[in-house]
Write a structure and sequence with these properties.
Length: 132
Amino acid sequence: MDDSPYRSSAVSIEVAARGPLAKAIVLMATTGALLGITQLIMTVWAWRIEAVSQNVTLWIMLGNSLPYFVLAYGTYRRSRICACLLLLYSELHALLIVWLFSPLPAYALLAPLALLLLLVIGTQAVFRSHRF
């Protein structure tokens, strides 16, 4: 039997596939996919009401939803790099939105903080799932 620390056994895959770690990872991947869907819906909405006059801006907005889907799938497959990038990308995007729409009331800052908490817990779960 090979005792390589870099190769996972069948037992470790079954342990990592269940439990609270798996739920946190699936929740993080679902959140990333929902952020992508929200971005896609907002792009179609802006196109339908002709809120954006240039087509280049619409393509940039449409392309902005693609990283969410790719990183959410990578996180679902337990990629540590994708989890970190999803955390970073979504928080920078949330901070950009808060900055663009500032002055916001104090309770409006709870959404980016809740997103940060959810994504940090999911990222930690991805890193912990590689230990088993």
